[in-house]
Design a protein that fits this description.
6 strands, four-stranded mixed beta sheet, globular, 137 residues, 5 helices, single chain
């Protein structure tokens, strides 16, 4: 499994996002890249939208699984205000919650061809979290 992170960011938080994104992406790929979670998905792109309310209007979330490419593209919202006032550990948790939400949703689309529970277990173990810590807040 390979992860790719990007973001649609408000300029006010872009500098705070970069190191968190880089750290999470590196650790996820180091842990998961050579592991097998089934043949339905081999790549997940996570592109959170962290935008002030004035910029978020008209930007719907996108949750897409490309069966033939075995790839997923998730463009979901992280609350701008929460991210703005958070410290690095809290920002990391917000990003991991976004990842966990994408994986849970992807599991509903892919069925038994994707071992989402194993992937979530590896992620939570890597970051020293309980599953309840990355559950929707």
């Amino acid at each position: 499994m390979t992860f790719f992170f990007s973001g649609e960011l408000d300029h006010r938080i872009s500098e705070a996002f970069r190191p968190v994104r880089s750290r999470v992406e590196s650790r996820l790929n180091a842990r998961c890249q050579h592991r097998d979670y089934g043949d339905a998905v081999t790549e997940i792109a996570i592109v959170p939208m962290i935008l002030g309310p004035e910029f978020l209007a008209g930007r719907p979330e996108r949750r897409m699984w490309q069966r033939k490419k075995r790839a997923a593209d998730y463009r979901t919202i992280i609350d701008f205000e929460k991210f703005s006032v958070a410290d690095d550990a809290q920002r990391e948790r917000l990003l991991l919650m976004n990842v966990a939400d994408a994986i849970r949703h992807l599991q509903t689309k892919t069925g038994s061809g994707f071992r989402a529970d194993d992937l979530l277990a590896d992620i939570t173990a890597e970051f020293g979290l309980a599953l309840t810590e990355v559950h929707d807040a």
